[in-house]
Amino acid sequence: MKRLFAYLQKYMGRMGLGLVIKFVGTMMDLLIPWALTHILNEVVPQKDVGLLLWWSAGMFAFSAIAFSFNVIANRMATVVARDSALEIRRDAFSQMVRLTVPETDRISQSSLISRLTTDTYNVHAFIGRIQRLGVRAPILLIGGAVITLSMEPVLAGVLLATMPLVTFASIMINRKGLPMFLRQQKAIDKLVLTVRDNITGARVIKALGMEESEIERFAGVNSDVSLWETRSGATMALSSPIMNVILNMGLCAVILVGAARSDLGLTQPGTVIAFLTYFSIILNAMLNITRIFVMYTKASASMRRLDELLSAKTELPQVYMDDCADKNAAIEFSRVRFSYSGGEDEKLNLRDISFKLQKGETLGVLGATGSGKSTLIRLLERFYTVSGGDIYIFGKPICEYGEKELHSLFGSAFQSDILFADTIRANIDFGRGLSDEAIVKALRCAQAYDFVSSQEEGLERRLAPRGADLSGGQKQRLYIARALAASPKILVLDDSSSALDYQTDAALRHDIRQMYPETTVVLIAQRVSSVHSSDLILCLDDGRSVGLGTHDELMRSCEVYRETAQLQMGGDI
Amino acid sequence: MQAKRGWGNATDTIQKTRRIPVIKRLWGYVIGGKWLLLLALVLTIGSNVLALAGPKLSGNAIDALAGGKGMVDFPTVYYYVLLMLGFYILSSLLSLVLSRLMIRLTQQIVVRLRGDVFEHISRLPVSFFDRHQSGDIISHITYDIDTLAASLSSDVITVSTSVITVVGSLVMMLTICPLLVAVFAVTVPLSMLFTRFMSRKVRPLFRKRSRALGEMNGFVEEMASGLNTIKAYNREEYADERFMSHNSDACQSYYEADYYACMTGPGVNFINNLSLSLISCFGALMFLSGGISLGNLSSFVLYSRKFSGPINETANILSEMQSALAAAERVFRLLDEKEEEKDSEGAEMPEKLRGSVAFDNVSFGYLKSKIVLHNVCLDIPAGSVTAIVGATGAGKTTLVNLLMRFYDPNSGAVLMDERDLRALPRAELRKSYTMVLQDTWLFEGTVINNLRYGKPDASLEEVENACRRARIDSFIRSLPSGYDTVLSEDGANISRGQKQLLCIARAMLGKKKMLILDEATSNVDIRTEKLIQDAMAELMRGKTCFVIAHRLSTIVGADRILVMKDGDVVESGTHAELMKAGGTYSELYRAQFA
After folding, report:
1. Does residue B503 contact residue B443 with C-beta atoms inside 8 Å?
2. Interface of A with B in 461-490 (CB under 8 A)
3. DSSP of B238-279, one letter per residue?
4. How many domains, in total, are found in chain A?
5. Which of A113, A510, A540 to substitute to test the interface with B, most B CBs within 10 Å?
6. Which domain holds residue A429?
7. CATH number, domain at A142?
8. Over the stretch B283-330, which tens digit does the pLDDT of each residue have?
9. What pTM does this model have?
10. How buried is residue B533: exposed, middle or buried, by Cβ count under 10 Å (0-12/13-18/19+)?
């Protein structure tokens, strides 16, 4: 919650002004019954119709002021809620896109989604309502307390003695409720996950005829959410009756003490009656405070989740090292080791990988499924940090690059890349402000120009979410075009031509070398034909380098490579 | 296919939907818990009456102490105070039970509603998901249903409490002074007009708000799926910028709805104050002309407060109800999205499926205006292997979409065992296929559950056997908890090739008549592919197979190879025939050794 107050800090002035206006408005509301009493007690006995009309007009004026002030104050509150929610959500989003990859893995995508949506809704609603309800109720409470104290301090003392009890009860309920709201949000994460699973996997589920079992799976998740909603709700529902009982017990005590004092002649019965009237105001205020308090508990659960996101790690630490590598090499790996789980030996996903690639050269990486090809890329772009060894780019260790600086060297097409629900141009340009020539050149090189220009709207054609209306090969070609469009220093293609036919794949490789001769290329592939013309080929097997050299060298020296090549070129199935 | 289209864009049609049908439908859900509802009503009345008795009792207690010094009737005071305590505790207890009951009731409704929405989603045609952002769909299940739940649990009680009090006080006022009740003839219509004005004004704004939040949700979901891409291209700021436009839309529409909605409370307060002013003015005048006693006037005023208090409360929640209605409307609109067409009357699978397939002059386009398949005619005998090759975008995956009936042809018919697919039960038809796709799909769950997906009763032995044949067994064993390892979201902890092997193992478990391999081994390296060759052959044995592959070496043994180009089948024949013909296929085949 501390962080929420930090956000609200700069609106303090506006909120203060709103509070004053709300205060005046509320006072006007309170003045009206007072005016009525005055009419009945003072004006009517005078039988002065003129004065009566004046007072009635006055009441009308009070009503009008109360209305307009309350509306103004409420609207000011909405503005504050809007602006601060905007900022919180903005920060949460920009944090999300800047999280380190291990942090993203830890929090998980669907939890990120629900934090940015349902959690921010809770906070937004809270900021708005706390200002509206949160002002009126304390005013009534404090006003009631002040008046009763001035009337009869002893009786007021009896009533106020219940306050510590009320506070204690509130704290206990909050303590009990908060973890439940946290569990509830977690269950919602799971709900989001299940629905997403079903949307992205609709085809497979239908193909396997598993709709019924998915409905069953969802029913489990659904009832889990409901369970926690019920529990948190039931806990919070305690607060209002408990307050009621405590305050009413106070009231009974007031009557008893009042009776005793009245018997001794210390209190007028009329005062006791007045007490009861004010008591109902106080009780109402308390009930409203209970409502605020429920919102508070819920919002603080959400705020805690947002806080966790906002304080998650964003940038990998930049380290300075003194030893310097070959200045001319574009990419150099020196005894690089890595493990996702942080383990050693058996658990290593890459072990002792070393190679050197000059500027403008092409590195082909070939290896079986799970041999560590994609891991190599993730280390190169520093999505993960090496467990041992060093990686140099243009002679500088990658940990000395700032994250931005490092990524600006790359153009990458990943295995699980994504297209957005936007135009083709926007997907290629990706907000980099590229010229039409650059985009068209990249499309041509990626062998995507023909199919793009055959679209009626060409570059302006809008894609379905995730590019669902394109074939696998079309999507891959757009990823590659996006990677090429900014003429990157290093182009990374992580198995991104697997859905292309051989002809297209060959044309692609040829055009990259022709049209982007300066670019250093790292190419990961399953097919020997995709890498055989590379300047350097790295052959991986179970995280180890089993061959490094040109096609001809590897054909001679590397058994894995030779076997793969024979299987493929021989084509004897 | 159409690009993303929010539900909201059809604003004009929404405007016409009336509130009544939405409430009626909602009522259908509420009435499901009618006994709970009835109980809730009884409890409401009970706790209200008990609470109303409180002031009366305290009045009696005060009467007993009113004597003043030395004259207090202590036994009577004790008696009434004790009664009060009892009544209050009872009333609080009732209200606790009541609110828990309402939570139960609401949860029942919400669970049903969420279940219905989910169930409906799972019956929607694939084309729906191709058109809509998943984040927006998720927003229906989270934000919209939550809004509805919040309103249902509190508002229903408030409204019923109000009704009780309003009726009671109206009766009392009528008995005191019918003439003065005439004042309400001014203010009640006024408040009705006001309410009407507000709901006209506010409801579209709440709709807009739900829509804006849905769109923002969609965007967030999309970005969350592409975090690596954003990072690799340093596009954080660009994403921020685009998010900000959604964010400010969402916040602004939230604000706009609240801008008017927050008038409701003060507005109704104003009308109440107005009626109080009128009552005091006319009441005082009547008093002066002797039409009413002072005591009666003061009770009348007290009752008028009681009368308008609940109305005030109701008005306060009115804005909440507006947003709940807007949310309900959105949920119902999703529920009204057309499901896959019902199976036609008497649809049933052939007794014994042979598995022959025919395309009879099939034309198809994802958009009516843009045909991608032109008059395709094919005849595929049962148990044969048909390979489909062609450049990307030539329409290969479209053929699969038609075979599985994810889409229906625009004209012509697809036949299985000489029967039109449209005359077969869809679920059964799909179950007759085993499918391994290029875009593998695994759900969050253990490895073994993913494997058993198509055949829930497969024994562990069977599963392990399939995995050994698919050469994925040793990998699975190397995972932290072996077969019980939980695959993370999107299967991020295993590579695409491993995912495909898992899917192949999954396919081996289900014994089906038809098989579709759509680039089934595209991510599997060639050595592993060689190793699983026997298993693949076994998988294909005795089945009608459709194989889509770029690696032409995998399909040379097919009974028939179809070469597709721009939505037409341009060549057809065996490998040898096509190589001899020297057309597109032979070109493609030679290219892979270039």
Report:
1. no
2. 461-466, 468-474, 477, 482
3. HHHHHHHHHHHHHHHHHHHHHHHHTTHHHHHHHHHHHHHHHH
4. 2
5. A113
6. 364-370+401-570
7. 1.20.1560.10
8. 888 888 877 776 677 667 766 766 766 666 666 677 777 788 888 888
9. 0.76
10. middle
